[in-house]
Specification:
The chain is mainly α and about 220 residues long. The chain has four helices and no strands.
Length: about 220
């Protein structure tokens, strides 16, 4: 799509023929239309290339060169018309187109700059939102850690309290056993008596069973 800029050599001593000037001016206008269409891509919000990238800068430089060449050719055409060797109406039409091209180029340059600025601001806003979100996750993590530590300390306190209660009860039992030396002996006797009763009961049950079997046989 890129059209190469026409190299126009302007003689210093004489004015070129009118037909040659018309050819050159039309060629330059066609080049401008082609290059400005490429340049307009940098105005689109979906365009990912920044306005200061090398391709955009190259297009701006090429468009400015085309406008400079176009102005030179139109100046030659003006001199030709003054010598009554050209059409004033044709000259005025190309002059009007040249001024439109200048205004269009300046307007598009401003739009490209504005688009680049919006893209930059949007990028900064996205980055700021990302940082705020990341900060929120960090704060939430800190809150969760604080809750876990608080619960751990609470459990630790309860265990400490329970250990203290158990320790106190154990100390009381030891103290009671020391104050009543015969309690252990009494408990031992009770346990011995229960064992004897169980033995006697077992003997009685066995004797009854033997007698019953003897009778039945």
């Amino acid at each position: 799509m890129n059209a190469e800029s026409v190299t126009i050599e302007l003689p210093s001593a004489s004015i070129r023929p009118w037909d040659q000037l018309l050819h050159d001016v039309r060629e330059l206008e066609q080049q401008f239309d082609t290059q400005i269409a490429l340049y307009m891509q940098y105005i689109r919000p979906t365009h990912n290339q920044p306005s200061n990238d090398p391709q955009c800068t190259h297009l701006e430089s090429k468009l400015q060169t085309i406008l400079d060449d176009l102005q030179s050719v139109i100046s030659e055409m003006t001199e030709t018309v003054h010598t009554n060797r050209g059409s004033r109406r044709v000259l005025e039409r190309h002059q009007s187109m040249f001024h439109d091209y200048e205004r269009e180029f300046q307007r598009y340059k401003q739009n490209v700059r504005a688009t680049a600025k919006r893209t930059e601001l949007n990028g900064a806003e996205v980055e700021r939102d990302r940082m705020v979100e990341e900060r929120g996750r960090i704060d939430q993590a800190h809150t969760d850690i604080d809750m876990v530590l608080e619960n751990a300390f609470a459990v630790h306190g309860e265990l400490t309290q329970q250990r203290s209660v158990i320790g106190g009860a154990t100390a009381k039992l030891v103290d009671v056993s020391e104050r009543i030396p015969g309690i252990n002996m009494l408990l031992g006797r009770i346990r011995s008596r229960k064992r004897r009763e169980k033995v006697v009961l077992a003997i009685v049950i066995s004797a009854c069973t033997c007698i019953l079997l003897f009778v039945l046989t």
